[in-house]
Sequence to fold (637 residues):
Amino acid sequence: MLVTLYRSGPLRQRLAKGYTVVGRSRDKDRYRPDVRAAITERLVAKPPRLPTLPAGRPLTLRAVPRAPAALWIDTGPVVLHDGPTRRAVAAALSEAVAVVAGAARQAGGLLLPSGWVPGEGIDPSGGMCADLHSLEVVSDVQRELLCNLLREHSPSLIALTGRQLHGPAGALRRGSARLSRATDQVATRYIASFSPQHVDRVRAGLRRDERLARLEAMDVNPLGEPGVAAEGDVTLRLFDAQLSVSSAMAHALLAQALSMRVRDLERTGHRVRSVPQPLLERNRSRAVAHGLLAEFDTEQRPPAGGNSSPNGPRTKTTRTVPAVRAVSAMLSELLPYFRQLDAHPDELAQLFLGLELSTDAGAQDFVRNENDLLARWHAQDAGLLADEALAQRLGSAEWLMTDHISAANRARAAGSTSAALVWLAEQLDPTRPAAGRKQKPAGTARRPQGRPDKRSESRPGGRPDSRAGGRTAPADVLSPEQLLDRVADCGGAAEEIVAALRAYCRSANPPDLVRPLGRRDREEAKALRRLLRPRRAQQVSCDAPLASWEEPAAARALRGAGESGLALLHWDVPEADRGRVRAALRALGRPPGGVRFVLLTDTTYTGKAKDRRGTVEVLLVAPARDSDGKAAEEALS
Fold:
């Protein structure tokens, strides 16, 4: 019986979960690198008997090169295609960590999270390591695409998964201590091709132009790990070793979704755009130093008539975006693949909820990753980060499988966390409509077959490059962030705004711009709303929730949308009626004629009479029409 059918399904993944070791005695010598390395060597040379995975293969224990006081618990290649399998892998890995923690005690040591230090003056470098995620690929094209896609998102991945030093003396909220000290790891370079006829030329070019002698030294190792039957994989060295197995499994899902997106790119004949290396390294450095508090530069196309030289092309400009917004945009683009993986909201809560809560509530004390979590624990009680306290927790398989990030947010604001979890469940609902067959992932271009592309592949947002003679077609779909960037760049041109909204409505994204706008600066969000609102003649005010699309106000707005492509419905009602307006819109479903509606504003304010009122604004976006006035084949419905 056929149970599940994947078009671009998940392949196998290998997870090496990292921890560090310190001595157990009360003498200060237990923190010496040679003492810690000796205990680790004994554990690896004579490992305890570890649990077996669902496939019947036992987990293994191995040493970490260049980190003599650290070790990896390796799952080997596993398939993480559904919830029950992932839970079984997580349970086996948690039990293995608990077993190794017990064996470390017997060997005279304590198993602790990577980056733990007892206080000032202790060198942590020998005990810091990564959680390695090795992703299987089945072709040279997949290897190229995966390496380049991970490269493009590497600053966001570092900001999300970075881990700072922690211990009884303190815990920092920002950055990656491991990468800030790494001397054997560099930023990933763009790889034009991995086909056998080109790879030698690519290596020679990187060695000559980038002074990169070994591809294995990059954040993303495209050649896999030698000696552990992972030579054919693409290995991520970006993720710092996490405290819990729960966090590591959430990151494994994130890596798997990126891998599945690459298989879609290969199937549709697209390739990943080449982000300029100086811009990438600048963003990477900021992520290493500041984590989720960093600001990233993004390359922008200058507006028409803008910054240009009299006798040359317009120059490129950059704008700065918060790292939190870049991470949220990356996660939003991967939602279709999380749905395909049957991901449960609880599996992804620690990736999504902290970011959403920080944005919506305008507060910075929500927990977004393990850096925030450890800082929260230290603020509550520094004894929680003592070596014995942490070692006891790592000896409990149940504790290792718990989502402590979401638990901390629930303790801080139970209502907001529950509401955010409901929102995430809606995003992961497998019954949500998938993107159309014409969907083209943002930031991609058609891939010439059989040879590397020497020119710039595509411009951000799918804009055609005039120097390439218009060979790159506009993107068929836009994510919320890409839509807002497109609107900001169009200079108020109504036709471009309508076209961008149509591209957004073709995607699988929810028809809701309230959250994406909330992640922008307040003044920027106000300016974007002004641009998105059509002219006043196309705006219709309503006094009560709609009962049908045939009501006079709704019919007038639909006629306006049909005439100009865009109209706006506006409600200004008592605060208690705001929820009724939204509920009525959901009950009505899609408007007739292929028109789609997009929520633009949903907020409350204090009126002149000191009463609380609510404002709801909905954009009505009509499909393009052909020469006969009929809806085109690409109708938004």
The longest strand covers residues 13-23. The chain is about 40% helix and 15% strand. The mean pLDDT is 83.
